[in-house]
Design a protein that fits this description.
Blueprint lengths: L1 E8 L5 E7 L2 E9 L11 E5 L2 E10 L7 E7 L8 E7 L6 E6 L3
Antiparallel strand pairs: 1-2, 1-8, 2-3, 3-4, 4-5, 5-6, 6-7, 7-8
Length: 104
């Protein structure tokens, strides 16, 4: 997985910052999905301006010290297909790293 951005905590409990897509930095906001009526609904929506680019669900790593992270898919005009996106949080909670991979 390649790193495409660093996010900072937002005021609404989400995360904000630029991610690098198609040769440009796109400012995104991970907005908490406070209206989850279905347990399978995503925990965060990936937004850029008014556009929704994707969604993320919570997971835990499977190592000795499990860590929380978010994963899902993001789509962006010009991408040939959606990308897999994961967000890993720094231990101090002051930043998060966005990484991507192609679907297998």
């Amino acid at each position: 997985m390649a790193s495409i951005g660093t996010l900072q905590p937002g005021r609404d409990g989400g995360w904000t910052g630029p991610i690098f897509l198609l040769g440009q930095h796109v400012k995104v906001r991970l907005a908490p999905n406070d209206n989850q009526t279905n347990p399978k609904a995503p925990s965060f929506r990936i937004l850029s301006g008014e556009a929704e680019l994707g969604a993320l669900w919570p997971h835990k790593t499977r190592d000795e010290k499990p860590q929380d992270y978010l994963s899902g898919e993001a789509d962006f005009p010009g991408l040939p297909e959606p990308i897999s996106l994961a967000v890993f949080f720094a231990e101090d909670g002051r930043s998060a790293r966005a990484v991507w991979s192609r679907k297998a």
